[in-house]
Amino acid sequence: VLAILVAVNLLVSALPETYTQPDLSGSGLYDLSEQTETLIGGLEQDVTVYWIVQAGQEDSVLENLLAKYESLSDRLTVEKKNPDVYPTFAAQYTDGTVENNSLVVVSGEKSRYIGYTELYPAEVDYSTYSYSYSFDGEGLITSAIAYVVSDDLPQLYVLEGHGEAE
Asked: Has residue 98 got a pLDDT over 70?
């Protein structure tokens, strides 16, 4: 009986987190959309998500979400980079101040930086002067992955010299 329990435990631990850790949050915080699953499942290039976080200060919501992403494809890996150990790592991807629990999505020569405050956008209620926060992790991460693996990037053309205002 003990051997059977150990074998079952090993089999269950080998399953992806999408099967072993169902989303029990009321808002579907950890569920990934079908579009995200299709994009990640169809990756043809390797994508690395660098999670810039100090040891012991990991955001649990972000940690669970990144584990779901990583379980969808062998081509997507998540690596933690401690800014105390690698203080200049993020400088090659952004010029701004790097917040704890920020992300850098990289594939080949392309990269996209996602700041922690972008993951939790704040909305102001001016009648009560209070803030409410939401979580947009999936939208930002999926968008960044789509950007770094896409060869077809939009172009913007600016026409001038026809009397338009500055």
From this structure: yes
